[in-house]
């Protein structure tokens, strides 16, 4: 009895089969896919950073404008007299326990600021003010430019801020303030 037994050379891998690596085409495809993924991750990261900075600046601008408008309104309501009034500035007199003091609110279009001046003390209330206008109304609600007739002051403005080439803009809601302590005749 003769047995035939087939011997296979496949039981041991050859040296060439053991040292086989990646082909040039495989390396180029893997590099391309990796580059696309990295550029996507980088652009997503940059978008998140820009958005975060943009939101932060918007919140800061909104807070500053709200605080500035609150102070402006509080002092307008306390005013007992108006010494000057134009579309970009107003000078009021406020009477308190310390006597009468003069306060000016001035829109500086060059520096894009709403500033408050009392004596030699200057305070920037709001930065990044693109436009600002003051309108004045008499006791009957009609628009006037005569400082002797002014009973209400309306302020309107537009704020704008740019962060990393992204413009954030907020329009101030037009606010009208009654000068409660000011006596005027009709």
Helices and strands, with pairings:
Layout: H1 15-18, H2 24-78, E1 79-85, E2 89-96, E3 99-108, E4 113-118, E5 121-126, E6 129-137, E7 152-163, E8 166-171, E9 175-178
What does this structure look like?
- With 186 residues, the protein is α+β, with helices and mostly antiparallel strands.
- The protein has a domain at 53-178.
- The chain has two helices and nine strands.
- It has helices spanning 15-18, 24-78, and strands spanning 79-85, 89-96, 99-108, 113-118, 121-126, 129-137, 152-163, 166-171, 175-178.
- The strands form two sheets. A five-stranded antiparallel beta sheet has the order 1-2-3-4-5, with helices on one face.
- Strand 3 (99-108) and strand 4 form a beta hairpin.
- The longest helix is centred in the first third of the chain and has 55 residues, at 24-78.
Could you write a compact summary of the structure shown?
This protein has helices at 15-18, 24-78, and strands at residues 79-85, 89-96, 99-108, 113-118, 121-126, 129-137, 152-163, 166-171, 175-178. It is rod-shaped and about 110 Å long. Helix content is 32%, strand content 37%.
